[in-house]
Design goal:
heterodimer; A: 219 residues; alpha+beta; four-stranded mixed β-sheet; globular; B: 221 residues
Chain lengths: 219, 221
């Protein structure tokens, strides 16, 4: 019986894109359903009654939520191809730690730059750059966070890269100036089909953010 | 696996206890290094420079912070008494609920007055979800305690301290009978029952933490 895979997400979500990258890495076919977060579908509400958020992966009718939990699930089920987590327990733990760091820090700090009423942008920008520098340090001279191979942490972070132009524009700074190695890493990742086919266009993201800011009355 | 295991933890930290329980369940010998979260030693900054928190597991000199990450590491390294289920979907569910428990149950404790009623909503909702999840089972792990039991295992001892200090009632035995029964069963299990924090210590800590946290929000512009 062929696997039935459905992904509920919205196109600008860096969290939804992580799942797309993971599915593409594994060469999996799936049905994508675009949600309207102002008008959530009954399917979304049924499949994620706890958080009512995207992304949700539905595999043979069974839902999984929280993007990195979904990515780990995909990695475990389709473990014959492109492993995202290493085999050594300590390296696996390191990968989970850094993916957790991206989750805990980057999105919320980034929000201060893009969505906040004037005042928090400067602290947001400073904290954001500090986070990226810490991640850049962790990357070191490796081609990927996974070492020689694209892996779990790469998936967790690379999807933020299509939002970089938006952060830079509203924060008035250059990520390439602050973190050149990290930007080089994003370009390297974009050479992979799984990444380039999954990430949204940075200019479309910027227009999206601009629309939301107008709706929130901050532009 | 002869390498030395150290756990840097503190009595005040429920996150530390879940690691101790896991290590004891698996029969892993470890050295416990006691920290006071109100007065952190250089050791925490050395072993957890990113978050500067306990617990940190140090195995063969290699440090690992973040309790849920540590739990998975322990489960993968010491195979006795497996914590996570084998089935990938069940594993994903255990991870989801562990994360959920960590994120949702705290907000109500800090809130005051009208905000408290509002904040209790998500906390009660999360207990309702856990109630549904434990129905018909002795433990979240089935017949034996597992990953999710350890992850939400702070509820029996810590939640009633938070209820007392935060002046609220959350885990009502009538509203959540299955969860209440789970809590009663959980604290009877060895090694859990031999490894619990002294209640007065927790009350005093959370009481002063609450005053501090409320003063922070009062001082926000």
């Amino acid at each position: 019986m062929a696997d039935e895979i459905v992904l509920l997400s919205i196109w600008p979500s860096m969290f939804g894109m992580r799942v797309r990258v993971a599915l593409a890495e594994k060469g999996l076919k799936y049905e994508y359903k675009e949600e309207d977060l102002q008008n959530k579908s009954p399917l979304l509400l049924m499949m994620n009654p706890v958080h009512k958020k995207i992304p949700v992966l539905i595999h043979n009718g069974k839902p999984i939520s929280e993007s990195m939990i979904i990515v780990e699930y995909i990695d475990e089920v389709w473990n014959h191809k492109s492993p995202l987590l290493p085999t050594d327990p300590y390296q696996r733990a390191q990968a989970r730690f850094w993916a957790d760091y991206v989750d805990k820090k980057l999105y919320d700090i980034g929000k201060k730059i893009i969505w906040s009423i004037k005042g928090e942008e400067e602290t947001g920008k400073k904290e954001f750059i500090e986070c990226l520098k810490l991640l850049e340090g962790e990357l070191g001279d490796n081609p990927y966070f996974g070492g020689e191979n694209f892996g779990f942490v790469d998936v967790s972070l690379v999807t933020f890269s299509c939002w970089f132009h938006t952060y830079e524009s509203y924060g008035n700074f250059s990520i390439e100036t602050e973190c050149p190695k990290l930007v080089a890493w994003t370009k390297r990742c974009l050479e992979k089909e799984s990444v380039s086919s999954s990430l949204a266009d940075p200019h479309k993201i910027h227009n999206f953010a601009s629309g939301v800011r107008k709706r929130l009355g901050i532009e | 696996m002869g390498e030395k295991v150290k756990l840097i933890g503190s009595i005040q930290s429920l996150f530390s206890y879940r690691i101790e329980w896991a290590l004891k369940l698996k029969g892993v010998e470890y050295e416990y290094i006691k920290e006071d979260v109100r007065n952190k030693s250089p050791l925490i900054f050395k072993y957890n420079p990113v978050h500067k928190k306990v617990p940190v597991l140090v195995h063969g000199g290699k440090p690992l912070p973040e309790s849920l990450v540590i739990l998975e590491y322990i489960d993968e390294t010491w195979k006795d008494c497996p914590l996570l289920p084998e089935d990938p979907y069940e594993r994903a569910m255990a991870r989801f609920w562990a994360k959920y428990g960590d994120e949702k149950l705290w907000q109500a404790y800090m809130a005051e007055g009208e905000e408290k009623e509002k904040a209790m909503g998500p906390a009660l909702e999360s207990l309702a979800f856990l109630e549904k999840g434990i129905k018909g089972k002795k433990f979240f792990g089935g017949e034996k305690i597992g990953f999710l039991d350890l992850a939400v295992g702070w509820i029996p001892h810590w939640l009633n301290v938070l209820e007392e200090v935060g002046s609220m009632k959350l885990l009502d035995a009538e509203k959540f009978p299955s969860l209440h029964e789970w809590a009663e069963n959980f604290i009877q299990i060895s090694p859990i029952k031999e490894c619990i924090p002294p209640r007065e210590e927790l009350v005093s800590y959370f009481h002063s933490a609450l005053i501090y946290l409320r003063s922070l929000s009062a001082n926000k512009p």
